Amino acid sequence: MTMARRGLIAVPDAAAAALILWIWAYPLAWRPGLVGVVVLAMLMEFVVIQAGPFLGRIVYGDRMRLTPRERRRSALALGAVYVTFAGLAAGSFGRWFPFFLFAWLFGAKVYAALLGRRPDATGREREMSYWVLSNVLYLAVVFATMFVPVPMLGVTEEGSFYGLRGRYEWANYPHEALAAGFVYFAAMALIRFLDLRMGVELSAGE
């Protein structure tokens, strides 16, 4: 895969990292609620990550001996799950923006999968490898930012100031969520650009 194509694949993650860094440094530059949006985005991202294997069935269905009907069913089932999740998130916030947030996060995964698609097992192995890496990286940065001190930058207030409800970790210390988000998306952008992978073998039946 060419460097230019790898760069295009990395764009969504790089853009997310840059935006989170800006909000982390200047949370009041636009409106305080943006901090809460990042926290919600990080919660949604973990759920969206789990779509990796199902997304692979949809994108590489022809190579996995799936009929068009089976691919459509997979797409509808996956869409139903995430529309429901986004709806619950929208209801808890009392606004529609979680739907747009979900569309961005899920759309970024579809964009990367389609742009990196190859008509052989290499493409599927790459996507499965990215899925494993994203899970490991997400959990690593979340736990690391909870136990290792990270700078507050501009996020110096508790979550309630930024519109967050509850007393969970990120509501009490929202700067941890922004630090985790920045590191996670920046690292994923680098992984995709450098095409770093883990050894993931697919079964012969696929």
Structural class of the secondary structure composition?
Answer: mainly alpha
- SSE succession: HHHHHHHH
How many helix segments?
8
The coarse overall form would be: globular
Distance between the termini: 23 Å
Low-confidence stretches: 199-206
Please specify the SSE layout and strand pairing:
Elements lengths: L2 H23 L7 H17 L2 H8 L8 H26 L3 H19 L5 H27 L21 H4 L1 H21 L12
Helix pairs in contact: 1-5, 1-8, 2-5, 2-8, 3-4, 3-5, 4-5, 6-8
Task: Give a structural overview.
70% of the residues lie in helices and 0% in strands. With 206 residues, the protein is an all-alpha fold. The chain has one domain (3-194). 34% of the residues are buried.
What can be said about this structure in brief?
The chain has one domain. It has helices spanning 3-25, 33-49, 52-59, 68-93, 97-115, 121-147, 169-172, 174-194.
Note the main attributes of this structure:
about 210 residues, 8 helices, about 70% helix, globular, disordered C terminus
